[in-house]
Amino acid sequence: MSNNFVTRTWNWIDNRIGFSDYIVPLMVHLVPDNARWWYIFGSATLCAFIVQVFTGVCLAMSYVPGGEETYQSLKYITDTAPLGSILRGMHYYGASAMVMMAVIHMVQVYMHATYKYPREMNWMSGVVLLFVVLGMAFTGQLLRWDANGVWSVTVAAEMAGRTPIIGPTLAHFILGGETVGGSTITRFFAMHVFIMPALIFAGIGLHMLLIMRHGISEMPDVNDPVDPETYKEAYEKRIHKTGVPFWPDAMWRDMIFSTLIVGVILGCSIFLGPPALDPPPNPSSINANPLPDWYFLWYFAVLSLLPPQLETWVILGVPTIGFIVLFFLPLISNKGHRAPSKRPWAGGTVIFGFVAFLVLTIYGYKKPWSPDFGVKELPASVVGTDHGPLAEGAKLMHIKGCLYCHDIGGYGGHRGPELTEIGKLLTRDDLIIRINNGGHNMPAFASSISDSELQLVVDFLLTRGVEKEPENPKSTTP
Amino acid sequence: MSDQQPPTPTDQPCCQLKRRTFLTRVSVILGAIIGFMIALPGIGYVLAPIFRKPKHKWRTVGKLDDFKVGGFVLVQYEDPSPVIWAGVTAKAGAWIRRASETEFIAFSINCRHLGCPVRWVDDPKLFMCPCHGGVYYEDGTVAAGPPPEPLYKLNVRIREGLVEIETEPTPLTLTTLT
What we know:
- The complex is a heterodimer.
- Chain A is mainly α.
- Chain A has 2 domains: 30-364, Cytochrome Bc1 Complex, Chain C; 378-461, Orthogonal Bundle (Cytochrome Bc1 Complex, Chain D, domain 2), CATH 1.10.760.
- Helices cover 64% and strands 1% of the residues of chain A.
- A two-stranded antiparallel ribbon of chain A has the order 1-2.
- In chain A, helix 3 (41-60) runs antiparallel to helix 5 (84-111) and helix 3 (41-60) crosses helix 11 (246-271).
- Chain A is elongated, with a radius of gyration of 30 Å.
- Chain A starts with a helix and ends in a 16-residue tail after the last helix.
- Chain B is α+β, with helices and mostly antiparallel strands.
- Chain B has 2 domains: 19-49; 57-167, 3-layer Sandwich (Rieske Iron-sulfur Protein).
- In chain B, the strands form 3 sheets. Chain B has a 4-stranded antiparallel β-sheet with strand order 2-3-4-9, with no helix packed on it.
- At the A-B interface, helix 4, helix 7, helix 8, helix 9 and helix 13 of A face helix 1, strand 2 and strand 3 of B.
C-alpha cells in the first residue's frame, strides 16, 4: 500500500517535472567504454566546487565582511565556533583541490587533444572556468583578511596599476578607493561570493551542455586522426555500437575518486587545520611578509627573478597571453592526430610547464631574493673566537645588516653571494671598494659605516675560508 | 489543435508581418531599457570610487618634541576618507625622520616595486622590502633590487607644536607609453 502510494506520488511529480523525460536520458547517455580512469578529473573538479559552495555558505553565516570585524569573525570561526576550524579548513583545502583538479583535468584534455573538432567550445568554456577558479582562489586568499590579505591586495592593485593608461583606474577599482581599507574587503567579498560563483555556475552549465551535445570523447587512437568531415558520423556509429551508459557504468569511477578527494579535504582540515591567521589587517603595520597561496608562488618567484625592464610586460603579459593562447588553442589546431605519441610538442610543453612550476614554486617558498630579517648573530663556532677584533667584525656583520643578504657558514640570507670563502676570493682593497661603493645589486655602505667599523668587517671577512689570519702586518693597516 | 499553431509566414497578410516585426523591435528595445535601468545605478555605484577625487588631509602624527633628530620612526595615521566600518584597516603608515630641528622627511611605507611594506634598518641606514628584496637609501633612492622608482615622499609640516603628514593615495608605479 505504502509502496503503491510512493510510486503514485513519484509518478505524479515525475509527470509534472519531467525527470524521466529530461534528466534520466542525460544520466544514461552513452559514453565510450574505453575512457575509464582518465576521465575522473572533471567530475572531481565539480565535486570540489560543491564542497566550496557548501562550506562557503556555512562560513558566510558567521563571516563579517567589514573592516576590522572581518578579522574578529575569522578568529571566532577558527577558535570558538563549533566545527568552525574544520569548515574553514575544508574551504581552504577544497580551494586547493579545485585548482589542482581543474589544472589536471585541463592537462589531460590537452594531452588527449580532446579540444579538437567538434569540442572546441568545450575547451574554451573550460579555459574561462579555469581563470574564474583562479580568480576565486585569489579573492579567497584576500578574504582571509589578515596582514597577508591586506598586503596581497595592495600587491594586486600595484600590478593592475602597471597597465598602460587605465592602470590607476583599475587599481582604484580593485581597492574600492585610493587606499586599501574597509571598502576593499566588501568589494572582494561580493566578487568572491556572488559574481565569480555565478560565472562558475553558468560556465559549468555551458560546459555540461556542450558535453551532452558532442558526447564524451574516446581515447585517442593513433590510427584515427580527427577529420571534421567524417568525425561526427563515425563517432555516433561507434558510440552506439560500443558505448556504455554513463550512469552507472562510467560514473562509479567518478564517485570513487570524488570520495577520495572529499576524504582528503576533510582529513587535511581535521589533521592539519586551516591556515593560521597572520596579525590583524593593519595597513600601517610593517610586520608582514606577504606571500601568495601555493598556486601563485611560481608567479611570485617570476616577478622576483625578472630583469626590471621586462617586469611590467610580464606582469601584464603572462595572464593576458596565457589566456589568449589557451582560449584560442582549438582554433589553431582542431583536426589531425590526438594521440600523445604523435604530438611530442604537447608532451614537451606539459613537462616543461610542470618542471617550471615546480622549480619556481620551490623558489617562491625559499625566496632567496628577500633579506632575512630574522637572522641571528654568527656563533663563535663560525667566527673562530668569541672576543677580540674578529668577534667585533662578525658582530658588525649582523648589526650592519650584511647577514640579511649574505650567508657565512650556514648563517644568513641568500640574496647576495655566500661569503664563507670570501677571504680566498677577494683582496682587502676589493672588499673595501665593494662595501663602500656597493656593487651588482648591493647598496653602497660608505655613508653608513665608519672607517674603524669597515676595517673590523674587512679583517673578519679576510679570515673566511683562510686557515690562518694573514701574518703581514701591513695588510691590517687602513 | 492545429488552429492554435501560429500561421506560417506565407499565410500572413503584410500588415500581420509588419505588426510582428514592430512588436519584436519594441520588445527588444524595452528589454534594453529594462537592462539599462537595472544596471546603470549599480554600475555607477561600483565605479564611483574611480571617479572620486583623492582627498588630501593633514593628519597629526605626534608632538614635535616626540621626534628626536636621527633615524626614521614609523608613524600611523588615519586615511582621509575611511568608511565607518573600516576599523584598523583605515590606518596608513609612514616612515618619518627628523633631519634637523625644523626639517622632517617622510616616506610612504609602500615599496615602489609592488607596494609591500618596507622596513627601516637603522644601522646600515637602509629601507628593505621583505617581498622581492627592494632596498632604498635613507634619502629614498633605490639602492638595490627591482624597485623602478624611489620611495614616495609625503609632505610634512609643523603646526602649533604638532607634526602633521599630508595623506596621499597608495603610490602606484605607472607605465608610461612613449
